[in-house]
Each structure stands twice: as C-alpha cells, then as structure tokens.
Design goal:
Layout lengths: L3 E9 L3 H12 L4 E4 L13 E2 L9 E2 H14 L3 E3 L3 E5 L7 E5 L3 E10 L3 E3 L5 H8 L4 E2 L2 H4 L8 E4 L3 H11 L5 E4 L11 H9 L3 E4 L2 E7 L6 E6 L5 E5 L2 E4 L3 E3 L30 E3 L11 H23 L1
Parallel strand pairs: 1-2, 1-8, 2-5, 8-19, 10-17, 11-12, 11-17, 12-13
Antiparallel strand pairs: 3-4, 6-7, 7-8, 9-18, 14-15, 15-16
Helix pairs in contact: 1-2, 1-7, 5-6
The structure holds NADPH dihydro-nicotinamide-adenine-dinucleotide phosphate (NDP).
The site of NADPH dihydro-nicotinamide-adenine-dinucleotide phosphate has 17 residues, from α5.
C-alpha cells in the first residue's frame, strides 16, 4: 500500500509561527496540515507566565497559550498531526516538494511552510537543566522572564550580542546583573557598541575569564558557583535568576542543506517576505529570525508565510 499523501499546504513545526500560519492558511481554503514536531507547542511549552503576548491582559501560561493557538487553528479547519519531519526532497523548480514524516510517511506538498524554531543552547549542567525544567529560575530568555526578577539579583552567562542585549534589559529591572564571560577582558564576542554599552552600565558587574561550575538551589535558584579559568579560584554568587544567553541552534538539520542558510544555520528569507531560495518553500518564526525571537514576532511571520504561500499557490494554478 502506498504511504504517499498529497497535501496542498504543509506546515512543519507547531510554535506560534506554525499555528498562526495554519490559522491563516485554513481561512484561505488551503487545507493546511501541520506536523507538530517532537515538542508540540515549541519553546513556549517550557515557559511559565507569558505577559507580553497581546490579548492576554491577565497573562497566560506558555502551554495555555499554545493550547489556545492549537484550538484556534483546528476551529478554522487546520489539521494538526503529531509527527516530526525527518527528511525532505525539495523541488528546485517549484514542482512537488517531498517531505518524510518520522522516516516513514511520504508527503507530496504544493507549498511548504517551515516553522521549526530554534533551540536555545544551555551549559549542560545537571542543576541547570533541572531548574530550567521545573521553572525554578533558569531561563534562556531575559525578555520573556526578566520581569519576574524585578528588584532581584540575576546572573547572565554569555558575551555575544544576545547576552549584551539581555544583560542591558535585566539591568533596567535588577539591582545587579552578574555577567559571566569566559574570555578575558576585551574578549567579548558582541559588537563593539553592545559591549561598550554593557561596560558603561554601573549595575552590570562583569566577571571576565569566568565559567559556571554549578547552578545552586533546590527548588529555586539561589546563585551559582563560578570559577576563574586563569587563576582557578572559585566563588559563589548569590542570585534569584540564572539566565543563559550563549546562542541558539535553528532546527534545520532534517533539511540536509537544501535551503540556503546563513553562517549560524538560520534560513535566509528574501527581505520583507518569507520566501526561501526555493519556490514554494517559505520560512517563518525563529528558524529564520536571529534578532527578535519573540512569540508575537514569530506569529507575525507565520501570518506572512501563509499569505506568501497563498499568493504562490494561486499564481501557480491561475
Ligand atoms: P553568539 O554565538 O554570537 O555568542 C555566544 C556567546 O556565548 C559567546 O560570547 C560565547 O563565548 C558564549 N558561549 C558559548 N558557549 C558558552 C559556554 N558553554 N559557556 C560560556 N559562554 C559560552 O550568540 P548570540 O545569540 O549572542 O548571537 C547570535 C547571532 O545573532 C550573532 O550573529 C549576533 O550578532 C546576532 N544578534 C544580533 C542582534 C541584533 O542585531 N540586535 C541581537 C542578538 C543577536 P565565546 O566567545 O567565548 O565563544
């Protein structure tokens, strides 16, 4: 029996970008099918309260928001399926795009929207993962969670543009932001202007040549044990929040290099649209956004992807 299915509009990934694309595509009669991926709902499923998604005056939990988006997509006719895209064979000339789900099912799609997101990198320490999973004060997004640490001490790890941006954000909320930089003074990877802004902030205390040995705290973060990698000296820093800003990995490996990516693996889209280098393949959300990475911006690009796909499909069949 053939395991091939023809789908008009296939959406891969179920974060805010994917569900928003599904809502718009369903309302445009594109019969979208959305595959959720290994973590249905995406990064927000590990977030506690979301206070910055418009339309929720009383805040909403990350899983609650994603459940609402899924329900909304289904209510307007999108089909949500559990499964993960494992490989693809995209057409180079706007023909049918082949996508395999869980290495088994073969889908032939007229248009594909990629919304597979990006995965925040963590240090890989046991207590860090435990306290991140339990909502105990470890986070990879200061813009999302920083507000909960207003008036409290925080630690941030990293020295790229993201870490600098997030340290500056936290510095407007917290009495002291302890910034752990593993390189010696002058070795920040961030752009000069961002590094200078961080250095100029009185309440950002930079610890050069410093690595995290452990995150401290049972139920909630109480601080971190750190080590100077030049002198070997260890110390404990007390804090209520531990933020990690050491980069993200866009989830693109299943495409095996068939789309044009930038040096860090983000899908390159044409400016002002969600078009990739291949006709009929569109990308939205964090998998193509290294700068904003917010639920609402992901949702916005999800809408754009569905509109771009609709235009593409109607021109193709005209
Ligand atoms: P980057 O890869 O640029 O920086 C990662 C930082 O994390 C580096 O300082 C790195 O240190 C540090 N790091 C990595 N692993 C560890 C570890 N295990 N322990 C401690 N530190 C670690 O990631 P970003 O997310 O900052 O930026 C990604 C891209 O997005 C960049 O091109 C950046 O310019 C861009 N960006 C642009 C923004 C804007 O224009 N507004 C905002 C945010 C990002 P080391 O240098 O020692 O390797």
């Amino acid at each position: 029996m053939s395991n091939i299915e023809k789908i008009h509009c296939l959406i891969i990934g179920s974060g805010p970008a994917g569900y928003t694309a599904a809502i718009y595509a369903a309302r445009a009669n594109m019969n979208p099918v959305i595959y959720t991926g290994a973590q249905p709902g995406g990064q927000l499923m590990t977030t506690t309260d979301v206070e910055n998604f418009p339309g929720y005056p009383e805040a909403v939990t990350g899983p609650g928001l994603m459940a609402d988006l899924q329900k909304q997509a289904e209510n307007v006719g999108a089909e949500v399926r559990f499964g993960t895209a494992s490989s693809v064979e995209f057409s180079k000339d706007g023909g049918v795009h082949k996508v395999w789900i869980d290495e088994e099912k073969e889908i032939h799609a007229d248009a594909v929207i990629i919304s597979t997101g990006a995965t925040a990198k963590y240090l890989g320490l046991e207590n860090e993962s435990r306290l991140a999973a339990s909502g105990g004060g470890v986070s990879a997004c200061a813009v999302c969670d920083g507000f909960f640490y207003k008036g409290k001490e925080t630690i941030i790890v990293g020295a790229g543009d993201s870490a600098c941006e997030e340290a500056l954000y936290l510095s407007n909320l917290c009495p002291t932001v302890h910034m752990l930089v593993r390189k010696p003074d002058g070795g920040m990877r961030a752009s000069r202007i961002m590094a200078d802004r961080v250095k100029a902030k009185d309440n950002i205390k930079i610890y050069w040549s410093t690595e995290t040995v452990d995150v401290l705290g049972d139920e909630f973060v109480t601080g971190a044990k750190v080590k100077n990698n030049v002198t070997g000296q260890e110390q404990e820093i007390a804090a209520d929040g531990f933020f990690v800003a050491i980069g993200h990995t866009p989830n693109t490996t299943f495409m095996n290099g068939q789309l044009t990516l930038d040096d860090d693996g983000y899908i390159i889209t044409t400016k002002g649209s969600t078009k990739t280098n291949l006709e009929g393949v569109f990308a939205c959300g964090d998998v193509q956004d290294r700068i904003y990475r917010q639920a609402i911006t992901a949702a916005g690009t999800g809408c754009m992807a569905a509109l771009d796909a609709e235009r593409y499909l109607s021109e193709k069949t005209a």
